[in-house]
Amino acid sequence: MSAIHISRTILFGECDPAGIVYTPRFTDFALEATHQTLSERLGKPCIRTLNEAGLATPVRHTEIDYLHPLRYDQRLQQSVVIREIGKHSYTFGVVGYVGEKNIYRATISYVTLSSQTLQKVPVPAWLRDMLTQLQVRS
């Protein structure tokens, strides 16, 4: 397994008047990193691909540890891995950092639903296979 690395520059509008990133934006950063990771692995936009496959994948759980402030115009690097794959869900681990300094750590779990019935469905084999390539081995 190797992590996927996502990079972005912090924008002015993501910060408070002191130039520090608003706390809720970290959830957005982590979600965007998971979507970008899936899109890169699939070779096309992940949400569209999942919808075309009849899947809805809402977030079931998210958890974030804020470790250090982040400021306007800094380059945020994010390392994305899969922590767990369940029958109906999968969980990403995301670490955001600038240089050697960890900025935040997040876990985000998605549940797989039928887009028609909104009932849980098993993670499809094609998605499970792709996720397994990103999975952290203990």
Automatic annotation (TrEMBL):
CDD domains, per the entry: 4HBT
A GO molecular function held by the record: fatty acyl-CoA hydrolase activity
Leader peptide range in chain numbering: none
Keywords, comma-separated and alphabetical: Hydrolase
SUPFAM superfamilies (UniProt xref): Thioesterase/thiol ester dehydrase-isomerase
Protein name: Thioesterase
